[in-house]
């Protein structure tokens, strides 16, 4: 009986034995081979891509000392041990050796490295919207926050608290959630501004603007917030790889003064026959970036709408824009369209998305990230991070060394969050998928897309039920309008 029990125990053991060596790298999900990571990131757990693999055994060795081991159906590293190993190997690397068991046979693959940067992300976490595929109803969606050093996610507000409403774009001021804004569409629509510990709700739509206050971006001083106001429509493709097209029949850019509750209207960014969109302030507050395109006959001319990248000076003492706008990337010259400009907080770069036409990049497979050097004026595609699927909706960490973006490269259907580091030479590292405890199971079961992600410097303490009651009330702040030119 003892001999039988011993044989059974050995037969069920997941310890590698009679291992054969394969002269190739392992095929992992997610692909973390050769990535660069910060010390304050959650464990990069992974599986073998092959679903028939029963067990994997992973040995991790730090170049500056320390080891880590994982054994099971996927590599599940201890958060505390992972954190200690990264701290010990800051500026060094981790070398991982993977053995995989399939049909009772073990295979050892070539070892690979993960580089540990000396530069932390320096942010507590990220915020994002998760949204299911839906075109005519808002369905289930929400705004969430996620701690980057663990796998903890909490809801800020879900539309179960505000049934039938659409939740959009949680935007903090330079990653500081003490000052943030997001938009709600629907019968109880509102623009929610959180500032000085208070929540103010503005009417979601205003006839004087002609649309809603969307795509916000804070002035670093905290008093002003730039918005665009858009009359958005959609249509569907009947053939090809593109499913849906989103366009604006009109759009303008304006600045909102949160202290006086005044909408500052300027004809420079609200031109007739032109569509201004996606504003962003420079980190020193002296410039307002935005995109602009000549309006077309919609919907027929949707694929002729090309946005250029412009900037205009801004005076935070008076709230006034300058007299003239500069064109930084000219769509007439490039023949392409610019969207979602995001300057790095150190003032060195501006990242944007380039598409064949329009601005709603998440539905454009050709959408790629581009980098504009604000010192030299040179611009180039970020080939280090781009894929054959759509890349879009990027944002910088406060130290300007890391950025995140969404991409459909995983399956071509759903947008996921990826992170990368920007080197001092202006080159980005290989991006890595946002870590999850069991990433293969998590992402395969998740029938939602990530949308408008951004970094946050600290955890947000939000009462979703209270905010839901406030949104469903009739309480709205009255705004005045001031024509600046």
Word description of this protein:
By secondary structure, the protein is mostly beta strands. The protein has helices at 2-12, 79-88, 331-334, 439-445, 464-472; strands at residues 20-21, 28-29, 36-37, 47-48, 55-62, 67-72, 93-102, 105-108, 112-116, 125-131, 142-147, 153-158, 166-173, 176-185, 190-195, 198-203, 205-206, 211-218, 224-236, 244-257, 262-265, 274-281, 287-294, 308-315, 320-329, 337-343, 349-355, 368-373, 379-381, 391-396, 402-407, 416-421, 432-433, 449-456, 480-483. The longest helix has 11 residues, at 2-12. The relative contact order is 0.13.
Summarize the structure.
The chain is 8% helix and 45% strand.
Overall pLDDT metric: 91
Separation of termini? 93 Å
Radius of gyration, in angstroms, nearest whole number? 24 Å
Residues in helix, %: under 10%
Tally of alpha and pi helices: 5
Low confidence ranges: 1-13
How would you sum up the global shape?
A: globular
Give a count of the beta strands, DSSP E runs of length 2 or more. Answer: 35
Largest sheet: 7 strands, mixed
Strand content: over 45%
Structural class: mainly beta
């Amino acid at each position: 009986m003892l001999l039988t029990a011993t044989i059974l125990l050995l037969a069920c053991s997941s310890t590698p034995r009679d291992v054969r060596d394969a002269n190739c790298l392992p095929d992992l999900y997610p692909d973390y081979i050769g990535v660069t990571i910060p010390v304050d990131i959650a464990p990069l757990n992974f599986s073998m891509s092959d679903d028939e693999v029963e067990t994997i055994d992973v040995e991790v060795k730090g170049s500056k000392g320390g080891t880590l081991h994982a054994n099971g159906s996927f590599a599940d590293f201890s958060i505390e041990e992972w954190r200690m190993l990264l701290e010990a190997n800051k500026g060094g690397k981790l070398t991982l050796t993977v053995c995989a068991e399939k049909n009772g046979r073990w295979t050892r693959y070539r070892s690979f490295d993960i580089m540990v940067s000396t530069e932390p992300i320096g942010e507590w976490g990220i915020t994002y919207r998760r949204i299911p595929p839906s075109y005519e109803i808002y369905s289930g969606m929400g705004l969430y926050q996620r701690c980057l050093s663990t796998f903890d996610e909490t809801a800020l507000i879900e539309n179960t608290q505000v049934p039938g409403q659409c939740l959009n774009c949680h935007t903090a001021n330079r990653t500081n959630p003490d000052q943030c804004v997001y938009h709600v569409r629907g019968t109880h629509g509102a623009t929610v501004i959180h500032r000085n510990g208070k929540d103010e709700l503005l009417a979601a739509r205003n006839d004087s603007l002609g649309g809603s206050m969307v795509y916000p971006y804070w002035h670093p001083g905290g008093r002003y917030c730039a918005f665009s106001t858009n009359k958005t429509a959609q249509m569907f493709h009947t053939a090809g790889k593109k499913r849906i097209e989103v366009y604006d029949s009109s759009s303008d850019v304006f600045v909102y003064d949160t202290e006086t509750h005044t909408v500052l209207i300027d004809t420079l960014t609200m031109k007739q026959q032109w569509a201004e969109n996606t504003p962003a302030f420079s980190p020193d507050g002296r410039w307002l970036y935005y995109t602009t395109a000549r309006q077309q006959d919609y919907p027929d001319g949707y694929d002729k709408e090309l946005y250029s990248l412009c900037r205009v000076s801004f005076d935070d003492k008076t709230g006034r824009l300058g007299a003239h706008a500069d064109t930084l990337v000219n769509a007439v010259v490039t023949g392409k369209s610019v969207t979602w400009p995001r300057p790095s907080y150190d003032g060195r770069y501006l990242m944007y998305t380039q598409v064949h036409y329009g601005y709603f990049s998440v539905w454009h497979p050709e959408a790629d990230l581009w980098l504009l050097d604000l010192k030299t004026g040179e611009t180039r595609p970020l080939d280090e991070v781009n894929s054959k699927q759509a890349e879009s909706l990027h944002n910088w960490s406060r130290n300007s060394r890391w950025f995140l973006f969404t991409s459909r490269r995983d399956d071509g259907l759903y947008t996921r969050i990826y992170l990368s580091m920007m080197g001092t030479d202006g080159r980005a590292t290989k991006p890595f998928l946002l870590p999850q405890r069991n990433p293969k199971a998590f992402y395969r079961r998740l029938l939602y897309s990530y949308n408008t992600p951004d970094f946050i410097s600290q955890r947000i303490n939000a009462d979703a039920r209270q905010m839901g009651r406030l949104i469903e009330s009739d309480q709205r702040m009255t705004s005045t309008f001031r024509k600046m030119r």
